[in-house]
């Protein structure tokens, strides 16, 4: 059986654990509370007011002005996540981190039945409570999909075990947006096909779904029936990231093209730097723009060859930006690279001397940054507009970006 351990309101609960005066009160974890930004996590006391992750801090303060707004501490969350991984390993060697606050566990022997797996899950909940002082919700199922969706049934400190039959009984009547991997936007695109519930998706024609959504359509149909063949990969075997990216919420909405170009360059540099530090190259560049109305636009394009050079990443990111941005105030900018491969010791482009020298220069710059910090050397173009504007430090806290790095304790993520 598969267990999905989901720590309840993890970031906010950790802050309440470490600061007793926050317990029992609405808590919102964010970046710098004195600047603009978004909600990273909300405690269960804040959620009845409508506060949720991803919401702007301005909206959160309107809904819940009495909440305590706390700057997140990524190092603290990762350290506790590592302690939890050690705890899980006492129950099974097969542990796959899904995010900083979630992990899949495969249990055998006594855990091969729902009843046996439920007993193990209760023991895990007890140990988390006694050793760490936090609550966890656990979903149980024959595969990762059912375990993940079962974990959403009862929160906090819930425990739900499902067979494929009970999965269909519970979820088929529910809105299709509750399906893992669907969400509100895709749910809207499914409506013209007459798909409003999870059951409608399971009963839809595969050909209709493939025509509308490509290969993902039939896959969603299978998932809606509770079918999932994705393997659980223990983190000690190493799980390569699917993409790497950085995004930033600007200190104020900007229509300054030169300034936005500088932001893109700085983000491209950060992404390339991270790729090099972790030994990856990538081919697909994507940008994200969020406007003042909180509408998010994403575009991507593929390079001719794999790269970890910030200049090539920026060139493609800027091309996407000029096609996507038609003027208007921009609130958030992001750059990411996907379609990653491991960087080999020798690669074809470095057969040419000038490429080898460029690589040596990048390595030298990285060494300076390792010693003196990221801000010690940045691309000159990234300074564009700074004389006219102030901005927030680059970087953001997100659940997915805090998974322990591959090769240390876990997998990397965007």
List descriptors.
alpha+beta, DNA polymerase, domain 1, 13 helices, globular, 414 residues, 3 domains, 12 strands, Dna Ligase, domain 1, four-stranded antiparallel beta sheet, MutS, DNA mismatch repair protein, domain I, five-stranded mixed beta sheet
Structural account:
This protein has 414 residues and is of the alpha+beta class. The protein has 3 domains: 121 residues, 3-Layer(aba) Sandwich (MutS, DNA mismatch repair protein, domain I), CATH 3.40.1170; 57 residues, 5' to 3' exonuclease, C-terminal subdomain (DNA polymerase, domain 1, Orthogonal Bundle), CATH 1.10.150.20; 165 residues, DNA polymerase, Y-family, little finger domain (Dna Ligase, domain 1), CATH 3.30.1490.100. The protein contains 13 helices and 12 strands. The strands form 3 sheets. The protein has a 5-stranded mixed sheet with strand order 5-6-1-7-8, sandwiched between helices. A 4-stranded antiparallel sheet has the order 9-12-10-11, covered by helices on one side. A hairpin with a 4-residue loop joins strand 10 and strand 11. Helix 11 packs antiparallel against helix 12. The protein is globular, with a radius of gyration of 23 Å.
């Amino acid at each position: 059986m598969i267990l999905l351990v989901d720590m309840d309101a993890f970031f906010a609960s950790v802050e309440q654990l470490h600061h007793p005066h926050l317990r029992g009160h609405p808590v919102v974890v964010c970046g710098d509370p004195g600047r603009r930004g978004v909600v990273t996590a909300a405690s269960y006391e804040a959620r009845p007011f409508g506060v949720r992750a991803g919401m702007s801090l301005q909206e959160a303060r309107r809904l819940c002005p009495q909440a305590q707004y706390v700057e997140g501490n990524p190092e603290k969350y990762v350290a506790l996540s590592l302690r939890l991984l050690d705890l899980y390993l006492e129950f099974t060697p097969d542990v796959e981190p899904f995010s900083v606050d979630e992990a899949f566990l495969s249990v055998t022997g006594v855990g091969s039945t729902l009843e046996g797996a439920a007993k193990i899950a209760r023991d895990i909940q007890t140990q988390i409570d006694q050793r760490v002082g936090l609550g966890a919700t656990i979903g149980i199922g024959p595969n990762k999909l059912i375990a993940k969706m079962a974990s959403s049934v009862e929160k906090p400190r819930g425990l739900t075990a499902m067979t494929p039959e009970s999965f269909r009984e519970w979820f088929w009547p529910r809105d299709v947006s509750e399906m893992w991997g669907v969400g509100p936007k895709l749910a809207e695109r499914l409506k013209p096909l007459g798909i409003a519930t999870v059951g409608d998706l399971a009963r839809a024609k595969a050909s209709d779904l493939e025509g509308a959504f490509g290969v993902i359509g039939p896959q969603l149909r299978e998932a809606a029936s509770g079918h999932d063949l994705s393997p659980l990969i223990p983190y000690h075997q190493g799980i390569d990231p699917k993409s790497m990216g950085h995004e930033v919420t600007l200190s104020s909405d900007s229509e300054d093209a030169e300034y936005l170009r500088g932001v893109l360059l700085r983000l491209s540099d950060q992404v390339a730097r991270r790729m090099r530090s972790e030994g990856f190259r990538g081919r697909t560049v994507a940008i994200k723009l969020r406007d003042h109305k909180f509408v998010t636009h994403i575009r991507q394009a593929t390079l001719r060859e794999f790269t970890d050079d910030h200049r090539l990443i920026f060139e493609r990111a800027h091309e996407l930006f000029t096609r996507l941005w038609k003027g208007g105030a921009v609130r958030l900018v992001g750059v990411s690279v996907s379609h990653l491969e491991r960087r080999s010791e020798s690669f074809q482009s470095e057969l040419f001397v000038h490429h080898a020298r460029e690589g040596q220069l990048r390595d030298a710059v990285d060494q300076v940054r390792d010693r003196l910090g990221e801000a010690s050397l940045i691309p000159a173009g990234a300074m564009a507009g700074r004389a006219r504007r102030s901005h927030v430090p680059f970087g953001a806290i997100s659940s997915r970006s805090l998974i322990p790095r591959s090769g240390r304790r876990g997998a990397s993520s965007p």
